Hints:
Chain A is an all-alpha fold. Chain A is built from 15 helices and 2 strands.
Amino acid sequence: MTRLSLADTRILKVQAGAGTRLTPKAKEAIAGYVFILPWLLGFLGLTLGPMLASLWLSFTKYNLLSPPQWIGIKNYLNLFSDSRFFHAVRITLIYVGVSVPLKLGFALLLAVLLNRGLRGLTIYRALFYVPSLLGSSVAIAILWRQMFGDSGLVNAALKAIGWHSPPSWLTDPSVSIYTLIALAVWEFGSPMIIFLAGLRQIPHDLYEAAQIDGAGRITQFIRVTIPLLTPLILFNLVLQMIGAFQAFTPAYIISGGTGGPVDGTLFYTLYLYQQAFGYLQMGYGAAMAWLLFLVVALFTGGIFLTSRFWVFYLEQSS
Amino acid sequence: MKSISILYRTRRATLHLLLIAGALLMLYPLLWMIASSFKPDADIFKHLGLIPHHATIANYVDGWTGLGTSFTRFFVNSAVLCALAVVGNLCSCTLAAFAFARLRFPLRRLFFACMLLTIMLPFQVTIVPQYILFRKLGWVGTILPIVAPKFLAVDAFFVFLLVQFIRTIPRELDDASKIDGCGPYRLFYFVVLPLTLPALATTAIFTFLWTWNDFFSQLLYLGSSARSYTVPVALQAFVDATSQSSWGQLLAMSVLSLVPIFGFFLAFQRLLLDGISTTGLKG
């Protein structure tokens, strides 16, 4: 009897020990949650929660003062009869569609020119990167506003080379968007640096093999360089496109927050800002935000879908 | 043989000339901005060259106090904001990155996928409810709506950057430290953290640059009192206040606002540019 009870207590003790002392696996899991806690709070409270709240708000009328009022899809219907909305969409698509390819084109061109074992590469790289570094600041937007003014630097230069009546960049709504496109293209430095890094990864023997096959410089560029850079072209394209859709500062500063002249620089984000925080149409703004999100997701998804036809990975081919 | 080397050299020289000309053309607006900030207003539009005919520092002296509140205040505000943002990102992003890269816990894969998706998310989708939330908390008009999210690793990009970096640290170190009796906490603090310093530096530099340049959230949250302005918001207010009349002062303050960014760039050029080429950070 006593022996048995002794054995019982031993078993009990072992079991109790297993209960209080955690297995290494459980310890690791707890530690994992401790480490991830700030991120998780931020994700739930500042990203996922607001995303869902934004979706819900997009079906309401809300001006911060009186409680949100459910109005169904009326915000979305109103968007489709809002001519300023369509104008903002058009301006933004022109901006994205013109600035992103030009920016990537310049980036690629300069990267190829710089990737020829030139002396002073690091200096050139730094110089061409400076606009990317500063470009998104308010200071540069102010400079741009000055440069493209009627008597600014750009028109003085155009007059000097013989264009007697250059456009009024900041007051003519049909050309004002191009000042913003010029600003975006000017910042080609960061994709250029990514391309440069990619060019250095291309194995040299591929060029040697191409030369033996009689390929000239241009054929080498089209048949070797471009295919091997396609993963980075895809990467830069997606990154720059998402960034371009969200551009805000230059349009705000150059137009003084109005999107003018005559809505000539009314970026989608600027119109969203005006609706949500200018007119306090929070529901309308949320609907615009969700549409933007869907469009960016569609474009990104579309690019990824087509990428299997034009993006080439070296490992696949061997 | 000799003619080939001459041909080669002339080609090189032409390329150099082209690149120098291109760089000059690109940087001319910046040089012109600096030059103009030392010119009297009347000369800015008259002389488009770089050498001021009547050099003066009046633009800097007058511009510094041109808004009523002095720019000292705005620079201090910006510096404080950036410092807090850097600290926040360094703490929260490193913690999360370590967990994703090294620890096994339930739902890890799901969370990791969520984290990656938030990198792509346009910030406009969350901005309206976030604003409403911060307004309810009474934070609008303070720096909290900008700083607090940094302590909650909302800049998922840096989490990703740090995960990628920590994954390159050899696992043998983990095993060795486990044999020595280290738990996950000591593994993080004594083994992984010291080895992550280069990526932490990249995170700190880019957080600083982006926060210094960020205009949207500072415009939205800092409120209308001039004493709470940061440098970008102050510059924007300056544009509204001067309306074309004192370009010289405006350009002078713009130049000054770029000095910290440029200084960071000169100091950390290598780290910055290598950071971009290895991780694809946008500048």
